[in-house]
Amino acid sequence: MKHSVYLTPMPVRIWHWLNAFGIVTLIITGLQIRFPEYINVFGTYKAAIRLHDTAGIVVSISYVLWLVYYLFVAGTLAKLYVPTTEDIRHGLFRQAFFYFFNYFVGRDNPHHSTPESKFNPLQKVTYLMIMVVLLPLVIFSGFMLMYIAPLRELILMVGGIKTLVGVHFLLACCFCAFLFIHIYLATLGHTPLEHFKQMWDGWEEEEVQEKLASGDSSGTTH
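Predicted structure:
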């Protein structure tokens, strides 16, 4: 029997797609800026820089909105994104083993999403690192590269323009790797498009035990 759970409120879905398009735009324009002799998607070099800067501002504003929403509106940042002791001691291994082996032999996912526990232990660790460490760093380094002259002293303090550009590029590479892994793992639902659908309408279908089908279920269905 299938049971539908409303996991993702509309503000989060809007933020997700806005952020996703912004990150993809940053990656493609960043590649053109880094390798202009090989990649020319957006016309001139100046056009790529302008679009890159615009996408960076959009992603930065989007990040602030995400932080405000989870800290002050929903108040669930720590609950959803910070791994528990159980997650670290046992959950990480169980979830990794599911992705690397159990999924391919048809076994159930050890994590069942609820509004209070949307992410499995691996997702918690990954998203915490992305949203609390890597994204702020890429925003901060990108901001310094946008305003080199006014922030000259600060740039020298972090090692100079070459160091700053190198760090910004390495952070971008991390986001490229995350994007490909994220899209692949999103296909590992009951159907390849199940998780994509959930991020579109907010609902996710879960397989439930027969005892739930006989009246023990307390979840929301539709």
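Summary: The chain has one domain: 2-216.
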